[in-house]
Design goal:
71 residues, alpha+beta, 1 helix
């Protein structure tokens, strides 16, 4: 009895493995994908916010109040 169950499981598993190999074909529909264009990288300035032990804050080493910073 166990041999029959094992045989059926192996048969079904083999069927699904073989069936998925045929589903992987992508030549059914030709697709024209867009081409990438060369773009200049946008260099953003580096910003450093520093808070020292006393709680004083600085933006790029210039003293600033934290409530004046924007997101």
């Amino acid at each position: 009895m166990e041999e029959q169950v094992l045989y059926r499981i192996v048969t079904i598993l083999s069927f699904f493995i073989i069936a998925t190999l045929f589903l992987n074909r992508s030549d059914a529909f030709p697709v024209n994908l867009p081409r990438a264009k060369t773009v200049k990288p946008q260099l953003l300035p580096k910003v450093t916010v520093t808070i020292d032990v006393q709680g004083d804050s600085a933006l790029n080493r210039e003293p600033i109040q934290l409530n004046s910073l924007e997101a």
